[in-house]
Amino acid sequence: MALVRAVALASFLLTGSAALAADPLPPLPNAVAAPGEIPVLSVHAEGAQVYECKPVTDGKLAWSFREPVATLIADGRTVGRHYAGPNWEHVDGSAVTARTAGTAPGATPADIPWLKLEVISHRGNGLLSSVATVQRINTSGGELNGSCDKVGALTSAAYSADYVFLRRD
User: Fold this and answer.
1) What is the sign of the dihedral through the CA atoms of 58, 148, 153 and 116?
2) Which of 9, 92, 109, 113 qualifies as a FRET site for 142, CA 20 to 30 Å off?
3) Phi and psi of 106, rounded to 5°?
4) CA atoms within 13 A on the CB side of 101
5) What is the CA radius of gyration of the chain?
6) What pLDDT does 25 receive?
7) Angstrom distances, CA of residue 82 to CA of 27, 46, 77, 160, 169
8) How far apart, in whole angstroms, are the C-alpha atoms of residue 140 and residue 158?
9) Tens digits of residue pLDDT in 105-123
């Protein structure tokens, strides 16, 4: 116990009292918040948002979101994958499929929106088997807008995000 106190005191002396006065992290936008739910897993995702060239209402062609393809990372290790559905699979064999229940804009126009997703199905037994909600937050990149010139052409936009998997109490 004395060692813990000594480390805490040393840390305080090295960092000063600024750490004690630091503001807490800002709350999530209401549209993606999940009050009362408990985090089960938080991961970082690196991947791409895949887009397909399709006709739009005025007869012109434009990029339309098709699917995500991403690796889920925790503590520097791959722990799962994220793909069309949307689906998330964990290395323990558990998986969820979800649908959008809320959205908030990303930090810049180039960032895909933050999402609150409601789980609609579970597969396997494992870490994700109790998950009710998935949040996509801290997005970077992934948006693609504008015209294209060949129906069916595919392209992708790199993105990263954090996914938080939550259960109800």
Assistant:
1) negative
2) 92
3) -70, 175
4) 16
5) 20
6) 53
7) 25, 10, 15, 12, 25
8) 8
9) 999 999 999 999 999 999 9
